[in-house]
Design a protein that fits this description.
Elements lengths: L4 E6 L4 E8 L4 E8 L5 H5 L7 E5 L3 E2 L18 E3 L2 E2 L12 H7 L3 E4 L3 H11 L2 E6 L4 H10 L6 H5 L5 E3 L5 E5 L5 H9 L3 E5 L5 H6 L4 E4 L10 H10 L5 E4 L1 H9 L4 E17 L4 E13 L9 E7 L5 E6 L4 E4 L14 H12 L7
Parallel strand pairs: 3-4, 4-6, 5-7, 6-8, 11-12, 11-13, 13-14, 14-19
Antiparallel strand pairs: 1-2, 1-9, 2-8, 3-9, 10-12, 15-16, 15-17, 17-18, 18-19
Helix pairs in contact: 8-9
Length: 363
């Protein structure tokens, strides 16, 4: 068993001893926590976790196993996975491998047997921080390396498609800007009949409009929205010309394009049971979220956008819409399959907006 030891070392010097899980080697990243009890494959393969180490606060992870159909990306970009107990023998008729095998096949380093709730409390109190999963017992050296580490700021470029492609449908034509999209966004649009053209993150407004879509979808993605300057300019040029719907990073980019600003949250929102209040209906929706940045509420006051949704737990901005143009966005994930489907109506709202706009497929 001694050879199976592995360590999670945090930037503040805290060390957790556990057991090897997943791929060999070591991996460093920003450590975050997710409170979901389900949707593990969806979470690990969400490219919004680029350069991050995912800590699952729920203690038993992998009971449903992993399959070939439910991944949100072909090449997951998370830096690591931390669990209390990794289920070795999943119980699900669709399962083809367990957590350890799935992490190995995707070259993701993990650690099991640690107190993930302790880690969650630490992040909640101190905020997200850098960390490393390693086999080395020289913790002082590891801490020194972690503190000196800096991350590249090109996460969106790394996870976006390089070439356009089409997922066909017979309904409204949607141009989807890929900032690190989850596949379920495409599936959700296709299920409603939409013809989806997935485009690279740096596509210009001229290129997008040449395709004559009925609407533009802005996907989720990793990193700081302020780093994606070319997308902000593109969105600014598109507002007023075509219906736009943004999710997560797409939501933040719409706000920045409108003149608002973003900030990094202490520990973010990551989980499948996040309550959000719809200000139009006064109803609370249970949502799936995964973001470490948010839009500054005060910065929206002098823009053309108004707030439509707020987070119940901390009153942060969860949705906005343009006061006169067909543009809206939400900070959470209406396409998510890890939790309730309270927010799926937003796709229908987008489709109605496109139909009302009299675009290409309605001409």
């Amino acid at each position: 068993m001694l050879n199976d030891k592995r360590y999670l070392v945090l930037e503040d010097g805290t060390v957790y001893e556990g057991y090897k899980l997943g791929a060999d080697g070591e991996s460093a990243g920003e450590i975050v926590f997710n409170t979901s009890m389900t949707g593990v494959q969806e979470i690990i393969t969400d490219n919004s976790y680029t350069d991050q180490i995912i800590t699952f606060s729920y203690p038993l992870i992998g009971s449903a196993g992993f399959n070939t159909e439910d991944s949100e990306s072909l090449l997951p970009t998370a830096r690591g996975v931390v669990v209390r107990e990794a289920i070795e023998h999943p119980s699900n008729f669709r399962s083809t491998e367990n957590l350890d095998g799935f992490l190995k096949s995707n070259d993701i380093v993990g650690i099991s047997g640690v107190d993930t709730r302790s880690i969650t409390k630490k992040i909640r109190n101190s905020g997200v921080m850098k960390a490393e999963i390693t086999d080395s017992s020289d913790h002082a050296k590891t801490v020194e390396a972690i503190r000196a580490m800096e991350f590249a700021r090109d996460q969106v470029k790394r996870v976006s498609t390089n070439t356009p492609y089409i997922s066909t449908g017979t309904g409204p034509r949607v141009a989807l800007l890929d900032f690190g999209k989850k596949e379920n966004i495409v599936r959700s649009l296709n299920q409603r009949g939409c013809d989806v053209t997935v485009l690279p993150h740096d596509s210009t407004s001229e290129r997008i409009l040449q395709l004559k879509p009925d609407g533009v979808m802005l996907s989720n993605g990793p990193g700081d929205p302020a780093d994606v300057t070319e997308a902000v300019e593109t969105i600014r040029n598109l507002i007023g010309q075509i219906p736009i719907f943004g999710i997560c990073l797409g939501h933040q980019l719409i706000a920045l394009a409108g003149g608002a600003s973003s900030y990094k949250m202490k520990f973010g929102h990551r989980g499948a049971n996040q309550p959000v209040k719809n200000l139009s209906t006064n109803k609370v929706e249970i949502t799936t979220q995964n973001h470490g940045y948010a839009i500054d509420e005060d910065s929206l006051k002098d823009t053309d956008f108004e707030i439509t949704h707020i987070a119940i737990n901390d009153n942060s901005v969860e949705g906005i819409r343009h006061r006169s143009e067909p543009v809206f966005s939400v900070q959470y994930h209406p396409e998510a399959a890890a939790g309730p489907h309270d927010a799926s109506y937003l796709f229908d709202q987008f489709i109605e907006m496109m139909k009302a706009g009299g675009g290409q497929s309605n001409a």
